[in-house]
Amino acid sequence: xxxxxxxxxxxxxxxxxxxxxxxxxxxxxxxxxxxxxxxxxxxxxxxxxxxxxxxxxxxxxxxxxxxxxxxxxxxxxxxxxxxxxxxxxxxxxxxxxxxxxxxxxxxxxxxxxxxxxxxxxxxxxxxxxxxxxxxxxxxxxxxxxxxxxxxxxxxxxxxxxxxxxxxxxxxxxxxxxxxxxxxxxxxxxxxxxxxxxxxxxxxxxxxxxxxxxxxxxxxxxxxxxxxx
Length: 228
What we know:
Layout: H1 2-8, H2 11-28, H3 30-39, H4 46-61, H5 75-92, H6 116-148, H7 164-176, H8 181-198, H9 201-222
């Protein structure tokens, strides 16, 4: 199976697809993973940590292939990324009606915060969401897919030259990944614009990190667990 996948994708493609795909597959398998962990008497809490660690291991394995991550942002670019991240956070928590993907009444179970173990799992969840997910998603959605829509040899496509078609399609697909699809669409457009404008993927990543980090703190502080 591995050999077949390797024949379909180049190494540059695998480096950007596998961390994201692995995270999504483990997310889809979460009910069975949680059940298996419960049988072992461990509980379901480690499932998010498992996804994050698996993605991190793949990122480290492919680290030499991420040429776009060798370019670091300037101070002004980092500042714009932070502001963009806050903007996306505000767009994310805006009150959307149900037909636009709004949560409505939430039945999400809050994460407990009674013991040191509870706090540990909460930190694991926040760290994975704020530090791992933005990297794997920006590598996949912006660096790979957005450029791949314009040219099969996506590594030859300058971010400054990606078409409106590629930005729109990749952002729509990014939106489908999220329950709040309108917020996801707007977020995808903002992150895509940052990459196209500055040609530095770290700018998009930093904006994404800011959004997820602030959202995580807001969720815990306000108790709106449905956003997690």
